[in-house]
C-alpha cells in the first residue's frame, strides 16, 4: 500500500498546501446514544494562491454541513470510502477569496463505534452512579473524535465548549475556564483552552463522576471518589518530579500538571495528554513503586509534547527520549546512578524479549516503514527500549551523563513547538558535538544498523549490576535447588529487595527453562506473589506460572485480564494462554465473555492475538 498523503503515511492530509492553525470544538455529550454532537471551527492557512481545497482525516463521523464561518455560505465537500484504520478522506472546497486565512465550520457527530472513545455504563464504574466517557487519541484515533489533520506533522492550539449532564464533570487536555450552568436544562457547559500548539493525538476528553485532591502547587489528581485519596498518596512525588525535569530541560510551560486515574479498562499505563496525564488504576500499588509511569508522562511535557515526532515512523524520538528522561528523574528521586543502570538493564532484557517474540521482525526497526500499517499493530516496546539504548550508548561516547544532559536541553530549546524526524535529530547531534574528536566517534556509530536494522542493536551498552546481582543470585538459587533443598528458602529471602528488584527476580526466572511446579508452590507459599497488589509483580508471576504450565495459575490469569484492560498486561497473558493447549479454550471463552466490556482497541488486538480475526 502507498502512503496516504505526502507528509505522513498514516494521514490523508496535505499540510504543505493548506494547514490547520487553530481549532475550536463545541460539542454536547449524549450518554444515551454514545455520541458527541456539535461542530468544529477550523482555521486554515493556505500556502499558495492556487489552493482550492483542504483535506482532513475522519473516521466514522457523520458530517451534516460545512460552512464558511465568515459568510455562512455552504461549502461543498466529498467524503471518501472508509479505509480501515485510516478512515475516510474529507475534501472540502474552500471559499473563493484572496485571504490566506479562512475559518470553516463543520457540523458533525461521532458514531457509537468511534475508536477514540470508550463509553461506560454506571454499573461499569467504581461508584456505579453516573456513566463515564474517556478518549484515547494516540496514535491515529483523533480523526474519529473530530475532523482534523490527524498527523503530528501539524500542531495547533485549541479551545473547546463541552455540554454534559450537570452531575458529570468534564476535563480536557487543556486549562479549564469557569463552567456555565443551565439549570433548566440540567446541563453544564465546560470550557477549555490549550494555547500551546499541539498535535491532534494530544486532544483528550473525560466525562464522569470525578473529583480531585491537590497534590502540589500546580497539580491535582482526579478520579472517582472511591480512589481519589489512594491516588493522592500514590502520586505525592509529582511536584518533585516536575522540578527535577525542569532543572534538566527548562521551564514546564503547560501551566497545570494534573493526573487522571481512569477506570480499569484504560488500555495504556499512561498517556501524556497536556495539562492532564491519563493513567491506569493498576499504578495504585499503595507504596509509590509504580510512579515511574508518572515520571515518564511528565517527561513527555518536553520530549513529545514540545518536541514532537512528525510521523509515527519516528515515534522513537518521542518514546526513546522520554524513557531516557524518565529514568533520569526516577533515579534522581531514588537510587541514583546504580538505579538508572538497573532500570536500563531491565529495559535491555525487555527489548531482547520483544525481539525474540514479535511476529513481524520489521517492527523491530527503530524507524519502521508504516505505509499501509495500522500504528496500533506496529506498537511495541522496541521504539522505547531501542531508542533508550541508543541514547544511553551515545551518552558514553560523547563524555558521560552531564555532557549528554546539556545536549538534551539544547535539543529541547532548538526544536520546542516543532515537529521533527530522525534525520533532523541526528543532524542536530552532530552540530551540537562539533569538536573533531567527538565527530570522529559519532561518525563511527553504525547509524544504519541502529536506525534500520532488525533485531537487537549493534552494540550492547555496559550496565552497572550492583542492584541486579542479588536478583541474579536468588534466581540461580531457585533454578539450581532440588526438591530436597526447598527448606533453604524462607519467608524473609526478599526482605532487602525493593519492589523493582522483586520484579527483576521474577523476570530472570521467566528467562530460564520452565520451573517445576513444586518450586512455584513453594515460592507462592513463602513470597505470596499470587496476592500482591503490585500489578507489575502479579503480571510477571502469572507469566512465570503459565510458562511452568501450572494449572493453578489459570484462574488467576483469567481474573487478571478481566479486571483490568492495560494492553501491556492483557495481550501477553492472552498470548501465553493461547500457546498453552490446556488453557487455550478457556482463554478464548473468557475473551468472548468479556469482549463487549473491553476497550475496543484492546478487544480488537486481543482478537488478533487469539487468532479470532
Ligand atoms: N504515549 C504513550 C502511550 C501510547 C503510545 C498510546 C502509543 C498510544 C499509542 C505513553 O507515554 C506511554 O509510553 N505509556 C507507557 C508508560 C511506560 C513506558 C512507563 C505505558 O502505557 O505503559
Ligand atoms: Zn511515552
3D structure, described in words:
- The protein is of the alpha+beta class.
- It folds into three domains: 1-204, tricorn interacting facor f3 domain (Immunoglobulin-like, Sandwich), CATH 2.60.40.1730; 210-467, Neutral Protease, domain 2, CATH 1.10.390; 470-609, Serine Threonine Protein Phosphatase 5, Tetratricopeptide repeat, CATH 1.25.40.
- The protein is built from 19 helices and 22 strands.
- Strands 1, 2, 4, 7, 10, 12, 13 and 14 form an eight-stranded mixed beta sheet that branches. The chain has a five-stranded mixed beta sheet with strand order 16-17-18-20-19, covered by helices on one side.
- 45% of the residues are buried.
- The mean pLDDT is 98.
- It binds ligand BES and zinc ion.
- Ligand BES is lined by residues 138-139, 268-272, 293, 296-297, 300, 319, 379, 384, 568.
Amino acid at each position: 500500500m502507498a502512503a496516504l498523503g505526502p507528509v505522513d503515511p498514516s494521514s490523508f492530509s496535505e499540510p504543505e498546501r493548506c494547514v490547520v492553525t487553530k481549532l475550536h470544538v463545541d460539542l454536547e455529550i449524549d450518554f444515551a446514544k454514545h455520541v458527541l454532537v456539535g461542530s468544529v471551527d477550523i482555521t486554515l492557512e493556505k500556502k499558495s494562491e492556487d489552493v482550492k481545497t483542504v483535506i482532513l482525516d475522519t473516521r466514522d463521523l457523520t458530517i451534516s454541513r460545512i460552512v464558511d464561518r465568515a459568510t455562512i455560505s455552504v461549502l461543498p465537500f466529498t467524503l471518501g470510502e472508509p479505509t480501515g484504520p485510516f478512515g475516510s478522506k474529507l475534501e472540502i472546497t474552500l471559499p473563493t477569496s484572496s485571504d490566506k486565512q479562512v475559518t470553516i465550520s463543520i457540523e458533525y457527530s461521532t458514531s457509537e463505534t468511534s475508536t477514540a472513545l470508550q463509553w461506560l455504563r454506571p454499573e461499569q464504574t467504581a461508584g456505579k452512579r453516573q456513566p463515564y466517557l474517556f478518549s484515547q487519541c494516540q496514535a491515529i484515533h483523533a480523526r474519529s473524535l473530530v475532523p482534523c489533520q490527524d498527523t503530528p506533522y501539524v500542531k495547533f492550539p485549541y479551545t473547546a465548549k463541552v455540554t454534559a449532564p450537570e452531575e458529570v464533570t468534564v476535563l480536557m487536555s487543556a486549562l479549564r475556564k469557569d463552567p456555565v450552568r443551565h439549570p433548566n436544562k440540567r446541563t453544564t457547559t465546560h470550557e477549555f483552552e490549550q494555547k500551546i500548539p499541539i498535535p491532534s493525538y494530544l486532544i483528550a476528553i473525560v466525562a464522569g463522576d470525578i473529583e480531585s485532591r491537590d497534590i502540589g502547587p500546580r497539580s491535582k489528581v482526579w478520579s472517582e471518589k472511591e480512589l481519589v485519596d489512594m491516588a493522592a498518596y500514590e502520586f505525592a512525588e509529582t511536584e518533585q518530579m516536575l522540578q527535577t525535569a525542569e532543572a534538566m530541560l527548562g521551564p514546564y510551560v503547560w501551566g497545570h500538571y494534573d493526573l487522571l486515574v481512569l477506570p480499569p479498562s484504560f488500555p495504556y499505563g499512561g498517556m501524556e495528554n497536556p495539562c492532564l496525564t491519563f493513567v491506569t488504576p493498576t499504578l495504585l500499588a499503595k507504596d509509590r513503586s509504580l510512579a515511574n509511569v508518572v515520571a515518564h508522562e511528565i517527561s513527555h511535557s518536553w520530549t513529545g509534547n514540545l518536541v514532537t515526532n512528525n510521523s509515527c515512523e519516528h515515534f522513537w524520538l518521542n518514546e526513546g527520549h522520554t524513557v531516557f528522561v524518565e529514568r533520569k528523574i526516577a533515579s534522581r528521586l531514588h537510587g541514583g546512578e546504580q538505579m538508572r543502570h538497573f532500570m536500563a538493564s531491565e529495559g535491555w532484557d525487555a527489548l531482547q524479549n520483544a525481539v525474540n517474540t514479535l511476529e513481524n521482525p520489521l517492527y523491530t526497526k527503530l524507524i519502521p516503514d508504516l505505509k499501509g500499517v495500522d500504528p496500533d499493530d506496529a506498537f511495541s516496546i522496541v521504539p522505547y527500549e531501542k531508542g533508550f539504548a541508543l541514547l544511553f550508548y551515545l551518552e558514553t561516547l560523547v563524555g558521560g551523563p552531564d555532557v549528554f544532559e546539556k545536549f538534551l536541553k539544547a535539543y529541547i530549546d532548538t526544536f520546542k513547538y516543532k515537529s521533527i524526524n530522525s534525520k533532523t535529530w541526528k543532524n542536530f547531534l552532530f552540530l551540537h558535538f562539533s569538536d573533531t574528536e567527538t565527530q570522529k566517534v559519532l561518525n563511527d556509530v553504525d547509524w544504519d544498523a541502529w536506525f534500520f536494522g532488525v533485531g537487537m542493536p549493534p552494540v550492547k551498552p555496559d550496565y552497572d549490576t550492583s542492584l541486579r546481582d542479588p536478583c541474579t543470585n536468588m534466581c540461580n538459587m531457585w533454578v539450581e535447588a532440588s526438591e530436597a533443598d526447598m527448606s533453604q528458602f524462607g519467608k524473609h529471602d526478599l526482605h532487602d529487595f525493593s519492589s523493582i528488584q522483586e520484579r527483576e527476580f521474577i523476570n530472570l526466572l521467566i528467562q530460564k527453562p520452565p520451573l517445576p511446579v513444586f518450586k512455584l508452590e513453594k515460592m507462592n507459599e513463602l513470597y505470596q506473589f499470587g496476592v500482591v497488589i503490585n500489578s507489575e509483580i502479579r503480571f510477571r508471576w502469572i507469566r512465570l506460572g503459565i510458562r511452568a504450565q501450572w494449572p493453578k495459575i489459570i484462574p488467576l490469569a483469567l481474573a487478571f485480564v478481566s479486571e483490568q484492560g492495560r494492553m501491556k498486561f492483557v495481550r501477553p497473558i492472552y498470548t501465553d494462554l493461547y500457546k498453552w493447549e490446556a488453557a487455550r479454550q478457556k482463554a478464548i471463552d473468557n475473551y468472548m465473555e468479556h469482549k463487549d466490556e473491553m476497550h475496543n482497541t484492546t478487544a480488537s488486538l486481543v482478537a488478533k492475538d487469539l487468532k479470532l480475526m
